[in-house]
Amino acid sequence: MKRIKLSLLRRLKFFLPVLMVLFLCLPGSPGFAAGNAENPEMLQNCTASTESTVEPVIETVPINPDFLESLQPCPIEPLSLVDRNGQISGTGYKPSPVKLPEPVTPEGRQLVRASGSNLPPVYDLRSEGKVTSAKNQGKDGSCWAFSTIASLESYILGKEGKTYDFSENNIKNLVTNSYPQGFDLTPSEGGNALISTAYLSRWSGPVDESQDPYNDSSVYSPTGLPVQKHVQEVLLLPGKTEPLNNEVLKRALLEYGAVYTTMYWNPAYYQEKNHTYRYTGYQPVNHAVTIVGWNDYFDRNSFARVPPGDGAFIVKNSWGETWGEDGYFYVSYYDTKLGYEENAVFTAESVDNYDHIYQYDPLGWIISKEYPGSLVAWGGNVFLSERNETLKAVGFYTTDLNTAYEIYVYKNPVSGPVNLEQGFVAQESGRYTYPGYHTHVLRSGVAISAGERFSIVIKFINPSNPGPLAVEQPIVFYSSKAQANPGESYVSPDGIKWEDISAGSSEANLCIKAFTTVNKLPEADFSSNVTAGISPLTVQFTDRSRNASSWKWDMNGDGKIDSTARNPVYTYCSYGCYTVSLTSSNSEGSDTIIKPGYIEVVPFSINSASPEKDIITFRGEEQIFNISTNSACNVSWYLNGENRKSESCVKNSSHKETINSTGLCKVTVVAETRSEKVIQSWNWTVRSWNPWDSPDSQEGEKISTQELQEAIRIYLNGLQIPETGAELTKERLKELILLWQEGSGRK
C-alpha cells in the first residue's frame, strides 16, 4: 500500500503541473470572443462585411509535448554526468513551450530546401579561423547559453574578422527567476534558444566576458553592462528528417558560421578513444552543443555503435578544452537526435544601428496563437514615443517556414492599432524563409514626435504551420512573470475588427518591437583638402557635421549662400583671406560654424632660396642652388642665359654647377605657373684655388714660400689642409706652385 501511495504521489507531482499548463492554454482561457471592440474599423481601402457571421475566436496552438514532458521531476532515463576522472559536466537543455514547425508536410512534401552550388565533402570552421575556443560550463545547466554565445561569436568572427568573448554568465543568470524580466527557472534548470533570443533581442546582451566572468555557482549578474552588439535576427533552422538530410545545416555553417543545436547526451554512447558519439534511442534532447563543421568521409567504424554509413558533424562542446579533442567531438550523421529538433543561428549588428527599442515582450516568444481554420492573422502593438525620433525598423517573430508578412505603420491610432481617417504612413511587405526573430528595416524612416502614439500592424501569412502570432504570456513553471496592460497589443482575423489581446489573456502581449533613432540637434563642422594656395585656388570642402540633413555654405564671408551641397567644391580667383561658414540643419534645428580667415589666396612666390646672396668660390668647386615656392610650378635653370635644367610641377628644386674657369657668371632660375612667373638670380664670381685665402680676400691670388712648403708636406703625407679640410690633389698643388711663382716673380 505504501508503494502504491508513493507511486501515486510521484504521478501527481508530474501530472498536476501539466494539467495546470494545459488548463491555462485551453481556448476558453487565453482566447476571447472577437467583436467586443467599440466601433471596429477597417484598414484603409478595405470594405467592412455586413453579413451576420460567427466571429472567429483566437486560440492558443497546442503546447510543445516535449515541454510538458520536461515538467517531470526527474529524467525518464537516469544517467550519470560524471566522467572517469570524477569531473561533473552539466547539460541543461530545457524545451520551450513553442512547437517549432516541421520541415515537411504530413504528405511528405519538403517545405524548404537549401539552394546553391555543390557542398564540399569536408568543412571545418576551425580550419577557416571562424570559431572561438571551447569554454567550460562546469556543473551548471547552461549548455544552451554556451551554444548561443558560440554561434554568435562565430558569426561575428566570420563577418568582421574580429574575435569577441561574450559572457555566458550574464545570459544564464539574467533570464532566471532572480530577475523581474526572468523566467521561472534557476541557472541549473537550463534554457533553450528562444530564451537566448529573448535576452538578446531585448538588448540585455551580449556583454563582455571580462565584465561578468563565468561562475557555475553564481545566480546573480550585474544589469546594465555595456552591450557589445545588437542582435536583430535569429534563424530557427528546420530540423533533420533523416540521417543524410543535412543540407540546411551545412549551408547555414557556410553562410553564418557555427550552428546552435540540441542532442541527447548519455556517456554510454561516447567513444573516448576517437572522440565520437552516436545515440540510437529516442529520449528527449537534454543538451545544447554547437556544430562547427562536417566530414562526409568520417569512418563509421570510429563509433561505439557502428552506423550504416560514414559521415559526422564536427561539434563544439562546453566542457572545456581538456574534454574530447580539445573540446570538440564527432557526432555521426546517423545519430537519432542531433540536429532533429532545435537548430539556430544567432547574428549581430553594430550597437549604433538604432538608439531606442520599444517592446512589451522581454520574455519573447512563449506561445503561438491562431484563428482556427486560418493560417492568416493580424497583430498590432501601440507605443508611446518618449522623444522626437525616427522609426527605422520593426522587429517580430515568424512561426513558419516561408512566412509572408505585410507591415503597416500608423500615427495616432484611434481604433485599436489603426487610424483609418489619416491612413497608414508606411506600408511594406516581405517574406522570411526560416522562422525566428527578424528585423525589417523600413525603406524610409517615419518621423515621430515626443508624446505621440504610433503603432506597428503586421499581417502574417503562414504556409502550413498553425499559429502565425508569436505571443508572450504567463505559463506556470516557465514564464509566470509575463505582464501586459490594456491598449498595448491587438489582434484581428482580417485587419478589420480588432480586439485587445489582454481582454482574453490579461498578461499577454504580441512579440512586435519598434526600433528608432533619436532626432538630435545638428553639430556643424567641416574640413577641406587645402587652406592656402595661389590663384586660382580650387578647394574641396568636406562636411563633418553630425545629425545634419541639409547644408548652407558661405564661402567668402559675404553673407550669401554659395552652395547647398554637402561636400561642395569652390574656386577662389582673387588674392586675400576668406572666412568660411557652414549652417547644418535637420528637423530639430540648425547649427552654424564660422572659421575666420580659413582660406588664404596669395600671389605665386619663391618662399626661400639659397645661397641667400651673390657668391664667390674657387674654380672647380661644385655649387648647389635651391629654391622653394608656395605652389607647384615649372622650373628652369640658366647659366649665363643657357638653359641647364628644367622640371615640371614641383615646389622644391635644386641645381648643381661646377665651373673650371675664373670669372663672373650669372645663375638664373625661372619659376612659373599658368598665370604667374617669378625670377631669382645670383652673381657668381669664380677665382683660382688658394686654401689659405678666403675666396673674397682682398689680398689677391698670392701664396707665400712658407705656405707652399706646408702644402708640399701635406701632399706628400696625404693630409688635409687644416684651415679648410680640403684634399690636396696633384693638380691643385700645381696651381699653388703657379700662384707662388706669380707672386714671387719667379715665373
Automatic annotation (TrEMBL):
**Which keywords fit this entry according to its UniProt record?**
Hydrolase, Protease
What SMART domains does the annotation carry? Pept_C1 (SM00645), PKD (SM00089)
Q: Which GO terms describe its molecular function?
A: cysteine-type peptidase activity
Q: Any keyword S-adenosyl-L-methionine?
A: no
GO terms under biological process: proteolysis
Q: Name one Pfam family in it.
A: Lectin_like
Matching entries from PROSITE patterns are given as: PKD, THIOL_PROTEASE_HIS
Top-level taxon? Archaea
Q: Where in this chain does the record put each PKD domain?
A: 545-590
Please give the family membership noted in the entry: Belongs to the peptidase C1 family.
What is this protein identified as?
Answer: Cysteine protease, C1A family
Organism for this UniProt entry: Methanosarcina thermophila
